[in-house]
Amino acid sequence: MNIFTRGIILLSGLFIFWQFLVSAFQLPPYILPDPITVFKAWYHNRILIMHEAIPTLLETLLGLLLGTILGCSTALLMAFFRPVTLWILPILLISQALPTFAIAPLLVIWFGYGLTSKIITTILMLFFPITSAFHDGLKRTELGWLDLAKTMNAKKWRIFWFIRIPAALPSLASGLRVATAIAPIGAVIGEWVGASHGLGYLMLNANARMQIDLMFAALFTIILFSLVLYFIINKLLTAAVFWQPEN
Amino acid sequence: MLNSQLIAPSIHIKHAFLAFRDTVLFDNLNFVLPAGKITSLLGPSGIGKSTLLRLIANLITPEIAKRENTTVRAAITCNNNIAISAQVAYMAQADLLLPWLTARDNVLLGARLRGLLTSDDTKRAELILQQVGLNHATNLLPNELSGGMKQRVALARTLFENKPIVLMDEPFSALDTITRYKLQTLAAELLKNRTVLLITHDPLEALRLSDEIYIMSGHPAIVHAPLDLTTPTPRDPSESGLIELQIKLLHELTRLQGERI
Questions:
Q1: Does residue A28 sit within a domain?
Q2: Before B203, cis peptide (omega within 30)?
């Protein structure tokens, strides 16, 4: 069964269950609107939704890009200069322990209502999974390869470049998959806390005005867009890192 | 094949000591690997053969010894007075091919790692791959190769290094009998005139390939040569007397293994 058939079956099942919940418990639309109402809301507001999706998309992609660059550099630094690890690791853990929700308002104060504060929230969420996955991969180079490289009289940085980094790419790819899945969440959290644009902003506004159908429509747009993003990144990673163990 | 300027040296192992935690595996171990000859080393599992080979290859740095909880000491010299690490190529039981590189690029790994890759190297790599019968597979990735082909690429990579000393740790043990037989013949041919140390568990492999057979045994271990081999290598299994030698070797190894139980 291919991914599309499975996806359609899964989604239909979900919608049927949802419709059943609404009908069985007679839920009013301001608690849980039925799927058709949500779809109608989506259709009527499609231009608004697409318009608000652009900043969210931009924040997600930029956050993902910058978070990846930052995460990879940190992991490389930690693996190449081992003593650095002892100093960086606590910072890494702190960055992960920080409740993003709690500091997001601060980020808005510091970096304004625009893209920057959302990109930073996204980076804060991505940074740890990427760094830790890549660093793990860099640490776990097959010892036989290192022995072989040593008998070949290789310089340390060349072993790093030709063996340890490529060998760690499958791990980095898993980190990137996790990061891709959570990147939109980072952007939306940023928008919830303070924004004048974006799907998170739209959801918050719709919620406040009891337009639950519109809120769900925005929510589904985020889900759809996360799935598509994940699908694309996953395909790219599988093609680029073709030596992943499962292949 | 062998670079004419490099003459394979003999290797002298003196006062080798190895302890893992508190267990002394060998102490004051002394032996010589004759120049330009293939020497096989047999012996029970866990006796320290692989560690000895890694010790000769200069792979047990103080840092690694600490991590592996081992204490090692040895005076290992070559009669040409060149550091052993500058003239050694290493081949392990696992093919150690990098899965993201084609067969050719795996053979070229050493040149890349030394930062000295030239177009001549590429030509030479292809020539060697041809010699090991892989001219049709130069652009294939390891996962597109069979086990025997992978080990042939590993052999090609070892030969590409063109070093006068070759250390091999059970290089053919993971292969099926026929593939192993073919690869042994090929290796014997291509490794001629180099100083080779071959660790093996297979008495027949040792008898086919070696000019000298050593057995490592005892606690702490010592190395002794149970047989006198005079005929040229690679020996055909049908060669007269080979079966008797194999039986003798098997008996000797069984006796030594028995001591350990």
A1: no
A2: no
